[in-house]
Amino acid sequence: MFLWLSLCGVVVLLAYLFGSFPTGYLAGKLLKGIDIREVGSGSTGATNVLRTLGKVPGAFVLLIDALKGVLAINLGYALFNIAYSQNLIPPTVNPEIWQPYLVTLAGLAALLGHSKSIFLGFTGGKSVASGVGILLAISWQVGLSTLGVFALVIAISRIVSLSSIAGAVAVSILMVIFHQPLAYILLGLTGGLYVIIRHRTNIERLIAGTEPKIGQKVETQTEQVT
């Protein structure tokens, strides 16, 4: 059992490290020699990269950050597949119960890593792109439906942060609609709440009516990455 718990711990740790990979920060350094945390919104996420570096770098960062979430989830799946083939799963472990919870922990670790990267002094992005990757890896129906909510809100409002918040709110509801395990519903609730908290300064600007729309610049707000 100790070996099994150790393997589960390694999966969660690796998921955090995958999430911590500083895609946006590296893009800023390599393309413009800047610290992306010191410009725009102060976030290392794809939206700030889009505003600061342009569409192609923004799309690239979005893709890589989403893949971080996909990799994190597949680590959890891979452990069970490999452990089953090698007879490493203890008799007391029911894979149908354990796997969703391990996958949930891996997903939450990746979200935390994206926004609190060990490579950036525990700063980072808003965990939206990684969250999308996590959802698509767990349930493509939930992932695509969440993207649909995001797209609808952004088409109406032209505000990325509002669309991200709407998607975060919708996740747990969609998990229930698509009959996902309790562990994934809890992931939707916890992860969604975390993403909303990461948007707290955006929420303040939304209330004040000063949140920028697509194409508008935003003054540097380094407190967003704390």
Automatic annotation (TrEMBL):
<feature type="transmembrane region" description="Helical">
    <location>
        <begin position="59"/>
        <end position="80"/>
    </location>
</feature>
<feature type="transmembrane region" description="Helical">
    <location>
        <begin position="101"/>
        <end position="122"/>
    </location>
</feature>
<dbReference type="GO" id="GO:0008654">
    <property type="term" value="P:phospholipid biosynthetic process"/>
</dbReference>
<dbReference type="GO" id="GO:0005886">
    <property type="term" value="C:plasma membrane"/>
</dbReference>
<comment type="pathway">
    <text>Lipid metabolism; phospholipid metabolism.</text>
</comment>
<keyword id="KW-1208">Phospholipid metabolism</keyword>
<feature type="transmembrane region" description="Helical">
    <location>
        <begin position="128"/>
        <end position="152"/>
    </location>
</feature>
<comment type="subunit">
    <text>Probably interacts with PlsX.</text>
</comment>
<comment type="function">
    <text>Catalyzes the transfer of an acyl group from acyl-phosphate (acyl-PO(4)) to glycerol-3-phosphate (G3P) to form lysophosphatidic acid (LPA). This enzyme utilizes acyl-phosphate as fatty acyl donor, but not acyl-CoA or acyl-ACP.</text>
</comment>
<keyword id="KW-0443">Lipid metabolism</keyword>
<comment type="similarity">
    <text>Belongs to the PlsY family.</text>
</comment>
<keyword id="KW-0444">Lipid biosynthesis</keyword>
<dbReference type="Pfam" id="PF02660">
    <property type="entry name" value="G3P_acyltransf"/>
</dbReference>
<dbReference type="InterPro" id="IPR003811">
    <property type="entry name" value="G3P_acylTferase_PlsY"/>
</dbReference>
<keyword id="KW-1003">Cell membrane</keyword>
<protein>
    <recommendedName>
        <fullName>Glycerol-3-phosphate acyltransferase</fullName>
        <ecNumber>2.3.1.275</ecNumber>
    </recommendedName>
</protein>
<keyword id="KW-0812">Transmembrane</keyword>
<feature type="transmembrane region" description="Helical">
    <location>
        <begin position="182"/>
        <end position="197"/>
    </location>
</feature>
<keyword id="KW-0472">Membrane</keyword>
<keyword id="KW-0808">Transferase</keyword>
<keyword id="KW-1133">Transmembrane helix</keyword>
<keyword id="KW-0594">Phospholipid biosynthesis</keyword>
<dbReference type="GO" id="GO:0043772">
    <property type="term" value="F:acyl-phosphate glycerol-3-phosphate acyltransferase activity"/>
</dbReference>
<feature type="transmembrane region" description="Helical">
    <location>
        <begin position="159"/>
        <end position="176"/>
    </location>
</feature>
